[in-house]
Amino acid sequence: MDYANRPLVHRLMKFKEADPISFHVPGHKNGALTGLPMELRTALTFDFTELEGLDDLHQPEGVIREAEQKLTNFYRSNKSFFLINGSTVGNLAMIYATCAEGETVIVQRNAHKSIFNAIELTGARPVFISPEWDSASKTAGTVTPEQVKNALTRFPEAKAVILTYPTYYGTTGDKLEETIRLCHEREIPVLVDEAHGAHFAIGEPFPTSALDLGADIVVHSAHKTLPALTMASFLHVRSNLITPEKVARYLQMLQSSSPSYLLMASLDDAREYVESYAVEDGRDFMKRRAVFLKRLTETGHLEIIETDDSLKLMLRVNGYSGYDLQKALDQVGVYAELADFYQVLLVLPLLKKGQEYPFEKAVKRIEKAIEDMINSKVKRQLPGLPVFDQLISKPCYIMKEVEKLHAEWIPYEEAVGKIAAASLIPYPPGIPLLLAGERITEYHLQSLTSLLATGARFQGAIRLHEKQIFVVTNEAEE
Ligand SMILES: Cc1ncc(COP(=O)(O)O)c(C=O)c1O
After folding, report:
1. For the CA of 193, the nearest atom of ligand 1
2. Residue 436 DSSP one-character state
3. Residue 208 located in a structural domain
4. Residue list, ligand 1 pocket, CB within 6 Å
5. Is residue 359 part of a domain?
6. What is the DSSP letter of 82?
7. Cα 170 to Cα 2, 191, 204, 306, 347, distances in angstroms
8. Which among 477, 470, 462, 459 is positioned nearest to 421, based on CA atoms?
9. 338 and 465: one domain?
10. Cys-Cys crosslink for 226: which of 124, 270, 435, 464, Cβ 3.0 to 4.6 Å?
11. pLDDT, tens digit, for every residue of 66-114?
């Protein structure tokens, strides 16, 4: 293997070859003291720290700078950064770099919880845009330029517009460029959580990256679709409105002062992987994907839903929820990315020509899983999920205010009209159904009831067994 185009990986290999003796942290001493299995122990022999020649993520002047420069060049940004705390830290840093306490930010409502956490931490005041319903995936989709324009007209003081592109399900819509343009006309930066789209820079057969559509800051979970270690992520700045220095300052505060060289090496490798992804690789991937789809269709029970991103695929079986199907798949050793009410979501591998993947084995197992499910479980009438209104809304209180109010657990059937005292998050995908400070509506209650009936898991303000939800009880007194 030639490591010339992976400067950090190359340097780590050279460093290891020189037989270093560790009198430094980490305490596993290049793997010598660990009780981990051999495969992991081997990985630890590369788990160095900021030693001579290995540079410093927070003040890169050597090999990390070189690796980040290659990342910057490939994504054609002003400056791209390695992140070792996931897109979560990228979302935090981009929001800290643009919003301060009391300032207004416009946010797509179906965002990941890290976006809402960042807003809460900064004390900014969110205005939510509920996106259009994506009928293919039966999930919340993307926001339209008209919605953003309306929000900007009502809240011209907004300091940033924060969007999610693509959605978890791979929906991109086709209007992001227009949305960005109208924000830029007002000199408002557009921050895009593109956690699921690090591979979009390849171009065809994948959608266009938000970076190429003009976004100011874009965050990528490299680990989601590129071959990077979990948590390894990127942040890119390409903007006339925000400086990379400001983002770097927050990244320095928010990221570990002992960044993992394993994560950084895998980021260097992931960048090389996507950079060297050839047109021919894309064509070959699409051919193999088509065969996989055909074979899945031949099982006879599956409805297969495609979305804007060819790496994402949804599977449904009529009469069974996504949670039922996921359980059946787990039993045969096929693990989907997530399940929801209607379907399971598969993330396909970003294969290059010549790489093997056990698609046929997967088809056989999926076929068996469906047979087992149908034989052991009676079909049911799935309750419909309510489609939300496409609103521009503000929560009644931000979190800091909610914390000062009195809150209690009450049966959730009695919660309509009350204010949520904590967020309620179906997980995965981690998109809050309710945010602390939002008023609970019939839509929330119906969604919660349907999700619970079909086996969804939750984080946050719910006591599932007692059927209780955490709400503000002294709202009127404030
Ligand atoms: C849309 C979106 N943004 C951000 C994140 C957080 O990413 P990470 O796990 O890399 O911190 C996720 C995680 O699932 C996500 O789906």
Report:
1. 3
2. T
3. yes
4. 86-88, 112, 114, 164, 168, 193, 195-196, 221, 233, 429-430
5. yes
6. E
7. 33, 18, 15, 9, 10
8. 470
9. no
10. 270
11. 999 999 999 999 999 999 999 999 999 999 999 999 999 999 999 999 9
